[in-house]
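User: For a benchmark we're assembling, each entry needs the component sequences followed by a predicted structure for the full assembly. Here are entry 17's components. Please fill in the structure.
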Amino acid sequence: MAAPFIRVEGLGKTYVMGEKRLEVLRGLSLEIAAGELVALTGPSGSGKSTFLNVLGTLDSPSAGRVFYDGADAFAGGEEALASFRNLNIGFVFQSHHLLPEFTALDNAAMPGLIRRLPRAEAYGRAEEMLVQVGLGDRLHHRPGELSGGEQQRVALARALALKPRLLLADEPTGNLDPRTAEGIHALITELNARLGITAVVVTHNEQLARTLPRRLHLSRGQLEKESL
Amino acid sequence: MTGTGPAPGMSEPTPPTSPPASDEAPAAPPGAAHPVAPVFSTRAFLLVLVGLVGAANGAPLLQALLAGRGGLPPTLAMAGAVALAALLAAACGAVAALWTRRIGFYEVTAAMLLWGATVGLRVAALGSQRGAAAGLEGLEQQGLLVVVLGLLGAGALAATAVFVGATLAYLFGGTGRLDLSVSFEFYVAKSHLKLTRRTLLALFALVVTGILPGLLFLFVRSMVADARERRAERRGLLMGRRRMAETLLMTLISIGGVAIGAWALTVVLSVMNGFEGDLKAKILGQNAHGILMKSGQNEFTEWRTVRDQVLAVPGVVGATPFLVNEVMLSSGQRLTGALVKGIDPATIGSVTDLPAAVEKGGKLEWLTSPELIPRSPLRDLDEPPSGRRLAGIVVGREMARSLRVDVGDQVNVISPFGDLGPVGPQPRSRAFRVAAIFFSGMYEYDAKFAYLDLDEARRFFGTGDGVTGLELKVSDVDRARPILSRVTAALGGWPYRTKDWGELNRNLFSALRMEKLVMAVILGFIVLVASFIIVATLIMLVLEKTREIAVLKSMGAGIPSIMKIFVIEGMIIGAVGTFFGLVLGYGTCLLVGDVGIPLDPEVYYIDNLPVRIDPSQWVMVALMSLALAFLATIYPATKAARLRPVDGLRSE
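Assistant: Structure for entry 17:
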């Protein structure tokens, strides 16, 4: 049997602050198949963001392992992780985290430039993805000149410009009004279906979470239930 | 041999090896203990040490080799040796960095400390067994402090070369493959600096106009804007006034600092060059490039044949015999000591500039035909018109002034080596007529030198056919020494020996060189301080861009990439500042050279501040300020690269 796309084994994350030990994740295990669209819900402080960061190799686990295609993601050094992220993962954060001095197109082209793609190719892919998220007419606007929903769409285009295998979205709609939030969710669902990108979306919004095919609930650092 | 704490350019702390005991999830497999790279590598340390010691010790050897075997002129040999040694050091650093995948700060520092300790030991050894340490004799003559500073300086320079090599290698190969591209890093760096053509032009104008007018303008403008803002606030109007970003201000200040440093350095060095060149021209104008003398008891009577032999040596363009003696000169009640030189007026012009230095009213040729000298109508009354014709003498302007004589006047030359009189040796005295007055521009020469015709001088001093030696002129002043050694070789060596102008005036020129070096070091501190401002500016930028760095890292930008961004920022600041400084320096030098800053010739013996631009010095200044800017970027860059993405991304 082929290894699943993502396999998490006994994932633990403990922060040590002086005398205090803060256990954020406690022995989390799960598998995610390629192409799945997963909603991750849970109350504040349940470890959703930490889980996402460890899954995205931004943070290293204190215990357990994360396997991608059967290979330990954290086996290599920092440089290996960086290039792994660049090749496989796209992030969308709660606040869009776009680079304010650059236009939407520049922002979306940044991962391609980091990968050292030729300029024309990086910009071509960026433009293509911006058109897909419906911002074909906003290419040369800076983040400050865009609305919140538009900013988050640019962030989505940036995350997906290089067609990564995994999209990790940390409350992408947390700062948006319900209607715009719905639009973003719909867009993620659509892109997941169209591009076959695996996606894990952290959200507070149970209503929106219910629209996604697979739902995980995190509570006090542990996976509570899985409602299919 | 292990340090603590993360090394610059190192990955963030790797996960702890033992998993926390968790009773709630007993099935959890233990966390994988991934290998952690050590912060200190002995292998890399040894390599760095080899580079440092090799470069610091090898540079003088290389220089000797290049100058001796290669036959290069000393300055070029020096530059070549330093460049080669720096390359060697940088290569060692680069290999160490690629091995360890770190910039090797700890290793380089440890090697430098070790070098410093050995300097102490070597100096202590110097005290106990003099002359044992090879290659240090030259330094030793100049005192212990110079030795210590020289060794430490060489070590510091070599360590810098190693570190620069290591850092560059890490920046371009730290990911494990060669990555020379800086495209997106440059792009991001530019956005951080926010430098537009307009702000740069404004800054340049500010520095060019001497800062004060620009500051006054800004002061007035800021006052007007403040007043307007206050009025608007009173009326309840909200007025958005565009303010300059703090980081932009810091950037501009650092650029200005580097510019002022490079400017001061180039101008002062050029003026000091001017003084040195002026001095050299004056000394070489009145003196030959070298002299040939005969040692031993035998008189130098065969100088005519020797002169022909010497002139046949390639590189020698002129030779003239001379005879020199110390005498006293008197005119009326006035008396002065002088160095009188017997010269051959026919050939002296082929060696020195004496003919050109003769002032109007006199002629050098009158030395050989004194009957042509116009008589001074007043003072010659006492001379019997039927008496023997007086021989001619040429004196310097200052001497003529102190003796109050002019062309045609008489002076008495008194030599201590006189005839044997009834009560022992008596000074010999004879009257000469001033045939010409010369002005060399060197006070010492104009006040102390007098020239006689060679034959007259021989007769006066009773030296028969002998001369003191030959004065030589060579085709290239800076290669005087090798040409002169060829002359000695052509003559078969002993008893002939030569001295070049550098040896003849060693004290003067080594003092000048030392002065220039000290000046360069002191002014270099301005650039050093400017590089501290660069450090501060970049740290501020790093703090401001924490989130952006985290985002770039989440998108897969590696440590070298993040470092590159901030290194590029510092280098832009350094390069723009250096460029401004050099342009300003060049403009100032042209201005000082063309328009001139008048000096009191009575005091300085020069009527204008001399300026001579030496391109190699300018290249050195540019390289130095760029290197300092580069070093200044390393700390902020590693600080940025070590930021954990999770910290930067945490929602506010």
